[in-house]
Design brief:
alpha+beta, Rossmann fold, seven-stranded antiparallel sheet, about 25% helix
Length: about 350
């Protein structure tokens, strides 16, 4: 089946995962050069599963998910993927044509900053009404039906006095309440997949904990799958079942969260974990030397090699492929070219 308007082919397939992405590439054209921001992004999300996408600021986490959602600027963004499957439908991205993306088709997105994501000049009720009404058949979109769905969504995110909230403006609410409003907006479309971009980052730690617990309950109560984009390893440890580690537009390690955290393989993953401040007094955070490369002129081979303490000659000219450390843990590093660690 071909969707000419959206520039994509679709066919029914069979997969045990809700979402599968293989070898996604995203580039931006401008100022006489092309920035290859995402070189190779692969991700799988099972049904009712929580997956974290982790990396430094600027490593391509949000860009990768926004490309899949179809919300990147059409004029400058160029994307392709070897394989994209959602809800047993394989979608072929045709280069040079418009890609509508998955947003609205069973996928909802919760943006990063609640303070700037809600329009301050419209009430919460009017903004929720517009979103819910677009998701209902116009003939059935009576005001009473829309309001009932809005109130159910607000109750689902545990906001008290929802009738009062509908008449208030975003600037009258706390940051935590605004974040819950955004989540309520997302679940009104009854998504199968919820993408949260740095949820709770702008909030204090106690409110952030409440938001994370709320997301966890959405999986249990509503059966949604969740992708969490963050640089906060503590959030990933608490919330996610699986974790994908990104560096400079490439996935360098992936696996079950407990395995990756307890036995990190890639030097970048090890560096991220070593960068966490030690609250026990047993030493200080080490950090990672250097910084993310310029995407207009990235280094050849493994993009992490200029910052890696274990860099070998092969790392400087050929990008490593993923190898399986175990059935639920893989890494893209020449230190494990046959799945076994080697000294260099």
């Amino acid at each position: 089946m071909v969707d000419e308007k959206d520039g994509r082919d679709m066919e029914v397939t069979s997969s045990e995962n809700l979402l599968e992405v293989e070898a996604l590439r995203v580039a931006f054209a401008g100022f006489g050069k092309t920035a290859n921001v995402v070189e190779s992004f692969s991700l799988s999300v099972g049904h009712r599963q929580k997956v974290g996408v982790v990396g430094e600021t600027g490593c391509g986490k949000s860009v990768s998910m926004k490309a899949i959602l179809g919300v990147l600027p059409e004029r400058t963004a160029r994307l392709s993927a070897k394989r994209l499957v959602f809800n047993d439908r394989e979608i072929r991205i045709v280069e040079g044509t418009r890609f509508k993306g998955l947003k609205g088709g069973g996928v909802s997105y919760v943006p990063q900053d609640p303070m700037s994501s809600l329009n301050p000049v419209y009430t919460v009720g009017s903004q929720l009404y517009d979103i819910v009404r677009t998701g209902i058949d116009r003939e059935r979109a009576t005001r009473e039906k829309v309001k009932r769905e809005i109130l159910e969504a607000l109750e689902a995110v545990r906001l008290s006095n929802p009738e009062v909230l509908l008449r208030q403006y975003p600037w009258q609410l706390s940051g935590g309440m605004q974040q819950r409003i955004l989540i309520a907006m997302a679940i009104t479309r009854e998504p199968q997949l919820l993408v949260g971009d740095e949820p709770g980052t702008a909030l204090d730690v106690t409110i952030q904990d409440q938001i994370l617990r709320l997301l966890n309950d959405l999986v249990k109560d509503h059966g949604v799958s969740i992708v969490i984009i963050t640089h906060n390893l503590g959030v990933i440890r608490l919330l996610s079942d699986r974790v994908t580690i990104m560096y400079a537009g490439c996935v360098v390690e992936e696996g079950v969260t407990t395995q990756v955290f307890e036995d990190p393989k890639h030097p970048y993953t090890q560096g991220l974990l070593d960068s966490i401040p030690k609250l026990t007094g047993l030493g200080i955070a080490k950090g990672i030397r250097g910084r993310i490369p310029d995407y207009r002129d990235p280094p050849p081979g493994c993009r992490f090699h200029p910052r890696c303490d274990y860099c070998m000659t092969v790392c400087t000219d050929t990008r490593p492929e993923h190898v399986d450390i175990s059935a639920a843990h893989s890494v893209a590093c020449y230190l494990y070219s046959d799945g076994v660690a080697h000294e260099c």
